[in-house]
Specification:
Layout: E1 23-31, E2 35-38, E3 43-46, E4 48-54, E5 62-70, E6 76-79, E7 85-87, E8 92-97, E9 109-120, E10 124-133, E11 136-143, E12 145-147
Antiparallel strand pairs: 1-9, 1-12, 2-3, 4-8, 4-10, 5-6, 5-7, 5-9, 10-11
Length: 152
Amino acid sequence: MAVSVIIFLAPLPLTAGEGAGLSKGQTVYVPAYSHIYHGNKESPFLLAVTLSIRNIDPEQQVKITEVNFYDTQGKLLKKYLDKPISLKPLESIRYIVPQKEKTGGSGASFIVEWKSAKEVNPPIIESVMIGTQSTQGISFTSRGQAIAKPHE
């Protein structure tokens, strides 16, 4: 008689500061869609883009050192910061690309850089796209992804 044993391994819950992905800084790529295509003729549907940066650390501030907007071909369109800004614990900031601004295209993106003196919970950095035309409306979000930045 054969006996089968099945073992389920569940991860243990994380406690504060333990493997929670703390960091002292990152470069974050954030997809942003100035427009998407719809219909058989692939007509552009223009969208307003809100870049949201949320310091989710309840105790430490983070410094935002770069917020840049790029078009589909990777060309820099706009630098949003002249100098770094600090976000207090649980503070948020937003940057807007108006719906009428179509130079970014369907493959637009932001690069956001942030840093902190101490290890912190990395900020949530995402884009929110929304557009309306006639009786149609569309909205969706896209979460940023930390990337390695080449040394300059």
